[in-house]
């Protein structure tokens, strides 16, 4: 009887040992390589890239990396050019196709997340409408046939939008559409404030 108990105990301990060894082996085995994510581009070929790092954007088939993670000469050169263009245009005009990195200003056309209640298109319509109403009130105009052109976004206790749009003043004898620029802030995704709106100055 004692021998049977010892035999059953030995079998039980062996089973536990096998179970532990199995779990330990799983922990020691190297993890499988990360799966690659296929992302469609504008070309016929598909670009196969690793999962996009946080803060990166895919735009026109090009993966734009966060500049904070880059420490090389090309990144520094592009950073200098980027901030020069931004300063020269007062925040409105950047030749985005010339850059491979994401700095602290985001292109609206990258489709970033802005609001959980409105689509980006709805948000931009609201911001431009606020700018049009402000311009009409300040200048006695009546801007119509409004069309979005471009926008740059800075995150500062909410969002600051540098918007360029095209519109026609129906009260003017000149019915040729003109470019306008507006700087509009949105605090905590609620309050919208038009800080500035004007005809785009000549280059």
UniProtKB/TrEMBL annotation:
Residues 1-47 are annotated as: Disordered. Residues 7-21 have a biased composition (Polar residues). It comes from the Eukaryota. This is Cystatin domain-containing protein. It comes from Noccaea caerulescens (Alpine penny-cress).
